[in-house]
Amino acid sequence: MTLFDVQNLHVAVGGTEIIKGLTLSVPAGETHAIMGPNGSGKSTLAYALAGRDGYAVTQGSATLDGLNLLEASPEQRAGGGLFLSFQYPVEIPGLSAIAFLKASLNSLRAQHSEVALSAPEILKLIRARADALKISDEMLKRPLNVGFSGGEKKRFEALQMAVLAPRFAILDETDSGLDIDALKIVSESVNALRKPENGGAERGMLVITHYQRLLDYIKPDRVHVLAQGRIAASGGPELALELEREGYDKYLRAA
């Protein structure tokens, strides 16, 4: 069953077309990777799907589990199960990390007409997920991402994903700023989410990266090459190894 489907997507930023007719489908239970050089449109695709201001979809369609993403607000997209892990997570002074998680989770529950969790219930859930990511109580009490290292920001995003349990996650260069130990910890958390919980529905993921390194830990079912705003090639995990050896030149020339 196709969970996430994008057809002939065109996206412009500041009047310049960046995504130029991109088509991509991810079945439930699969993880796909998008690889491409700088300027190919990887982050533009992620931001447009999440509904960020300034990223104008001029043509095409995008659906998640039947939800028309392009007609939904960013909040509705999140409520429908879409999660975006940012390449550069923002800092929010004055809001503790744990308060952010509590507000986010109960906001999602409200969209699904579910009863809000109490503070003790949420704290128990957060601590269970945080332990696996080696995130301390002290870090949870700090203002969101303020003073966090690059690795800490990415580990906290992995915690957000573990707590919110989205239907479809887009990971935009989630390996950026991670040393090898942190990369292993974050990847283990991401891989755990690939498995349905308590007989629940299968999830999907789209991993955006420059390098094969991340895909050694989060193993994709399919790999796509993005060049000049289009999918230039698709294949199995071996395609990522080819890109690591040979680079993107032949795909850029073809595009």
Automatic annotation (TrEMBL):
Pfam families assigned: ABC_tran
Single annotated GO MF: ATP hydrolysis activity
Record field: transmembrane: none
Domain of life where this protein originates: Bacteria
ABC transporter domain segment(s): 4-253
Gene3D superfamilies xrefs: P-loop containing nucleotide triphosphate hydrolases
Keywords carried by this UniProt record: ATP-binding, Nucleotide-binding
CDD domains: ABC_FeS_Assembly (cd03217)
InterPro entries assigned to the protein according to its UniProt record, in alphabetical order: AAA+_ATPase, ABC_transporter-like_ATP-bd, FeS-cluster_ATPase_SufC, P-loop_NTPase
Similarity remark: Belongs to the ABC transporter superfamily. Ycf16 family.
PANTHER family, A to Z: ABC TRANSPORTER I FAMILY MEMBER 6, CHLOROPLASTIC
Protein name: Putative ATP-dependent transporter SufC
Organism expressing this protein natively: Terricaulis silvestris
Lineage: Bacteria, Pseudomonadati, Pseudomonadota, Alphaproteobacteria, Caulobacterales
